[in-house]
Model the fold of this input.
Amino acid sequence: MHTLGSPILALQVQSEGTPFAGSGDVVGLIAGTTPINQAVLVILVLFSVASWAIVLQKIWSFRASERDTARFLDVFRRSSKFSEVQAVCPTVSATPLVGVFQAGYAEMNAQFRMTTSATAPPPSPPSPAGASTRPTLKSLDGVDRALIRAATSEISKLERRMTFLATTASVTPFIGLFGTVVGIMIAFQRIGATGSTNLAIVAPGISEALIATAAGLFAAIPALVFYNHFTHRVKEFSATMDDFALEFLNIAERNFT
Done:
């Protein structure tokens, strides 16, 4: 009775009277970490905050671009003149199609001015009412090149700051791993200093190490997920710009060549 019951009773008293190691709050555990681990955690928090700010900005920006793209295409396909589309561009500035259209429209106007100045006839009596000269494009390839340059520029704008998400996804796990290694080293130093492998001595260092690992994953996983999502959205916008450029060229070839 005495030999069997005493250890069990002692174990129950210990488990009820004292908390398990590591059961304190996370803030207190972080406050008790070494300066190196605290610096690692600060770096990871900064990466996480910056990446989430970029994510929220990109979500808002892409939604506005998608909304204005639908509006712009509706106006473009219903209009009979490019000048009418140009007048609407300031109201749908969030779509990348505006930059592509304005580049093509500017190139067409430049070619029209060159053609008019090169073939200007000598002064003559005014033409009869109703007579008009149809403008002609000098080079459809020039318009195509202008559209391609503008599309490339718009893609660069859409991809702005996305490289930071890729950097966060690839770097932060290794920063967290550095904090993990430091925590494990501290745990072994405590074992060597005390000469004991008691869990109460080893656990704090391991807990610090695991916090650094968790913080690294917390920063990396959302950044990777949203980077892949935004990359897919940029590809969709790129395909839309390519389709629009072809549609623009078809209209220009049909009416001005």
Remarks:
- The helical segments are 2-17, 26-31, 35-78, 82-88, 97-118, 140-158, 162-194, 199-256.
- The two ends are 107 Å apart (CA to CA).
- The chain has a mean pLDDT of 81.
- Residues 190 and 201 are 7 Å apart (CA to CA).
